[in-house]
Amino acid sequence: MALLKLLVTIAITTVITIAVITTRTTTTTTVEHTSFDVLGTPTIRPSRFLAQKEVGDQRNPNAADHCNKDPEICNLYGGGGNNSTVKCCNNKCIDVSNDDKNCGACKNKCKFSQTCCRGQCVYLAYDKRHCGQCNNPCEVGEFCVYGLCNYA
Fold first, then answer.
1. What is the per-residue pLDDT across 37-70, written as a single tens digit (0 to 9) for each?
2. Which of 88, 96, 100, 145 has the most CB atoms at less than 10 Å from its CB?
3. pTM score, two decimals?
4. Where is the signal peptide (predicted)?
């Protein structure tokens, strides 16, 4: 019975605390006045989510690419040109030289336990040119075993 009273007391205390906090935050609002405002007319600040960017600002890195509509967007990431490894895959700019789901070309998935190195799907555990990690070649005459050159 004492445990039940304790739980009811905690529940009531929690509800009262939440009610007090929410009424304080909704009743306290800030109004800004600038020097040229007429008294009584508050200045409304736009939300930071709705604020417009200036003309010279950089793109938001979290914004969607939509490279199907504008193919020049991918040139911003990889520098453009014929040697660029950034391609437009599924309406996104993707570096096909190191993406496991688009290795070397769009929709070219590497198999399980393979990694994309320089646009090729390789097994890091056994590839002499990429032993243990991309671009880590073994010396001449050495073998790559379990991602280590000349293991055991």
1. 455 555 566 566 555 544 444 555 555 546 777 7
2. 96
3. 0.50
4. 1-19
Token pair 């304080």 is at which residue? Answer: 24
Beta bridge partners of 36: none
Q: How far apart, in whole angstroms, are the C-alpha atoms of residue 71 and residue 95? A: 14
Per the CB < 8 A criterion, the answer to whether 91 and 66 are in contact is: yes
Task: Tell me the per-residue pLDDT of 74-112, one tens digit each, with 9 for 90 and over.
Answer: 777 655 666 677 888 888 888 888 888 999 888 999 999
Write the CA distances from 16 to 8, 61, 63, 136, integer angstroms.
Answer: 12, 43, 42, 63
Residue recorded with tokens 């688009």? 102
- DSSP string for 14-53: HHHHHHHHHHHHHH----B--TTSPTT-PBPPPPTTTPPP
CA–CA dist 62, 110 (Å, integer) = 26
